[in-house]
């Protein structure tokens, strides 16, 4: 009994300090190993298989103005790309995820020639996926996708995102972001980025109004970012606008 309790406390303590990050990716049955901030950089970024951008740590980024908000580090780019067809899913793999409140988003940015040459803080990103509150009763007690995403059985947390089917082929970066809002007026951003080589017969690219920068797109005064989900003006409602503007899904653009 005492041993079990101690073991559980040890797990809770580890998780409480651990935060988290995006560890691997899958496309179909193929696994792509990501960067591990707890392993020496020299063993990873020179490796021909590396597809994820170096990231700094599993700790959150607190400021919308932090340059790390793009990719959790403007650091060293990887040499390789994950191949994927437009219209297919890429799944982000987390070994576990602890937090439960706040939205999750996925973004792409086009690299004109080589993603290694791109400044992640200057390139134009567009949102392709988002999920927020799935059901009530309110923002603090409701079920968010971020909570539904958690597995506590030892298997990884999996987050599938579809590349827009009509997206123009080329080299892109993909950016996954978890925004956790469980601490009052202290948002936590957890972004990571990887390189994609998108193939397929698509001919579309989002218009200017979908293109944003990190930092830039978020406003620290945004009531969805600087938020108290326990006592704020929307605490007892299910109203929540996922920050960062609309999703571009590659459909309907030609009709505008
Ligand atoms: Cu955390």
TrEMBL record:
One Pfam short name: AA9
GO biological process: cellulose catabolic process
Any single GO CC term annotated in Swiss-Prot or TrEMBL for this entry: extracellular region
GO MF annotation terms: hydrolase activity; metal ion binding; monooxygenase activity
EC code(s) of this entry: 1.14.99.56
Annotated compartments: Secreted
Cofactor entry: Cu(2+)
UniProt signal peptide: 1-18
Auxiliary Activity family 9 catalytic domain sequence ranges: 19-240
Enzyme class: oxidoreductase
Chief location bin: secreted
Annotated keywords: Carbohydrate metabolism, Cellulose degradation, Copper, Disulfide bond, Hydrolase, Metal-binding, Monooxygenase, Oxidoreductase, Polysaccharide degradation, Secreted, Signal
The reaction(s) this protein catalyses: [(1->4)-beta-D-glucosyl]n+m + reduced acceptor + O2 = 4-dehydro-beta-D-glucosyl-[(1->4)-beta-D-glucosyl]n-1 + [(1->4)-beta-D-glucosyl]m + acceptor + H2O
PANTHER family in the record: GLYCOSYLHYDROLASE FAMILY 61-8 PROTEIN (PTHR33353:SF19), PUTATIVE (AFU_ORTHOLOGUE AFUA_1G12560)-RELATED (PTHR33353)
Protein family: Belongs to the polysaccharide monooxygenase AA9 family.
Annotated protein name in UniProt: lytic cellulose monooxygenase (C4-dehydrogenating)
